[in-house]
Amino acid sequence: AAGVAKLPSFQTSHGHFSLWQGDTGEPKYTVYALEGMLEAKRAGIAVDAEMQKSALRALTDWSAAQANLAAHPDRTTVALAAYVLAAMDQPDFVLNGRLFEARQGLSLFAQCYLLRALSLANAPPAQVNAMVDLIAARATVQGDTARLPELPEYAEDWWPSAHDVRTTAAGLSALLTARPQHPLVPQLAEIGRAHV
To answer: For the purposes of burial, counting CB atoms within 10 Å of the CB of 111, is it exposed (0-12), middle (13-18) or buried (19 or more)?
Structure first.
């Protein structure tokens, strides 16, 4: 609750959030803030409705303005934005479609969040299946465990995705959202248990 109470002081007049009070807001911090609001609401903590509305509007407008997603420097942020919008019951179907078309040029981390966005938005099964297959094909399986390592060329796309444990966790969350019975789920979960 204390963290949610501090959020307004990090929001700019344009709706985005900044890392430090008084700084320029950035979409990547807005994604984090909105995901925090989502988790707070799930935990029964009140969230300022106007703050959330302003952030969602800013993120929607920013995402819509991004072109050439397959080569965009902020493509992972765009994918996370698509997920957050869908998770907050405001899916951007056009954005989801654009990301799906650019899926081969996205990092694995971004592909995982795109799968979650598509699943939450009730996208056509063919799109969801294609993303599941794309992510599953990247898994490295050893015995009862599996990993989803990020390709080196995408390591700078989004700093949390630079470690295999984080991309594996993102993949596990995506499959639990879209295909909870997928055979990779228990294998990916083993990696998580090993790092608790």
So the answer is: buried
